[in-house]
Structures are given as C-alpha cells and as structure tokens.
Model the fold of this input.
Amino acid sequence: MNPRSTTDRPDPAMHRVWRLPTADAVRGRRALWWSVGPAGELAVLLVSLKYLTRGRYPRGWVGWWPETPFTGELVTITDREERRIPVKDIRIRPSHLALLPDSRFLLVSGRTPRGEDGELWRPNAVVFSASGSPEAELCLGDDIAALVTDADGGIWTAYGDEGIYGGHPESAAGLAGWSARGEAAWGPGGRLPDHPLQGCTAATEDDRVWLVWYPGSSRGGTYLTRITPATGAVTSFSSRTASRSAATGRS
Done:
C-alpha cells in the first residue's frame, strides 16, 4: 500500500493511499487482507495479535493465521473519510476480502471441501451487513485464486489448478461470475482462447471486469479477459501478443 517508483525521481501517478496507523500497531493489530472496491475505495481488515498464530508453509514462508472464531475491524478509506466497523465471530479463515453495494462486504476462503454426503460443496464465503453482522453463507467454488466484485454486487472469480481439476462445476471452467446470493450467473461458455490452468488476479474498471489467467496449453504467457456484465461481451488479450507488438513498435 506504499508503491514507490523504481527510479530516483518519484512517479506522480503513484502515491501512498493508506498505512497502518501507529495507534493500531501499538495495540498489536495487523492488516491481513485488503481490497479495492468498484468505486476505488480501499478496504482493509485488521486483526489483533491475540487471535493470530504463525503459520509455516512448505516453502518456508511464515505468515499470520487467525484462530477461528476471531474478531476483526474493517477499515474503509475513500477520498472523503475513513470508516471503521467491528466484525465479530468470524468463523472462516479468509483468503479474499471484497466490497458489496450498500456498505456490505464479503469474506471468502479460497478452498471448500465437499459435504459429508459427497455431493454438496460447503459454504466458503460470508456476506456481512454494513454493521458487520453476517447475513448469508455462500459457496463460490473451490481453489479461488482471485476474486473481485463489480458495482452491481456481482462476484467474479478465477480459480487455481486444484479447483479447475477438482470436480466443482464452476471452478472447472477456470473463470466464473456469481450473484451476491451465491448463484452462478456467468461462465466462459467456450468464449476463451484457451482453457485456464491458473488464475492470477482480477480488477474492475467502470462497468467492466478484468480477469488474468495462465492457459493450460504450452503457449506460455497469460491472458487478460475483459467481461462487460451488462452485455455479456467477452474479449481476451494475450500477453505474448502484447509483448511482440511492444518489441516491434506496433501499437
């Protein structure tokens, strides 16, 4: 949240929009998840150290993990104000935070197992009200690598390889769109230039959604897929094509 230019001369287009206040750091709080909403607002979820333990990953990366249930505080920053909402009794370990209309927000775990009957997939997302109370539980597919929301409350996901090949019907397509009620609302439907292998990142711009993903073929590079929810239009751009154009000076 403190982007800096790689040159000695500062880039006027890049500036710090927020940093953890000293008062929060002194109180032992950590900023663990963040997201940028459709209107450009920044949201950060703070969690006290008393709820956190160190998690050690196979590759040696050490990070914080919350012990559920835990309490956090959602900080939302706009050009005009900073708003804080206490969020109690969080019972999932979030991988993603996203904003919804009417000051609601979404916490999502990246993974979800099948239920005991072997058929239904368990919820891995919780919708919270503007006051921080849970409103609904959703299942948004398995192995969510990237997630973003649009101005109308639609939820857009790109999946990892374990989800794509793991049996969940929406995850298998690589990219998906959902309603705020957890209903599958959009799928690629054969309109992608390749089958996704791994999602990378996601963003919204005005009325459009952007999803970046690696293809399953041996072509290399990535694809950037632009979706216009209002019309259903889908356009994908190859990073390899863009690189070749840049190298030859073509626009």
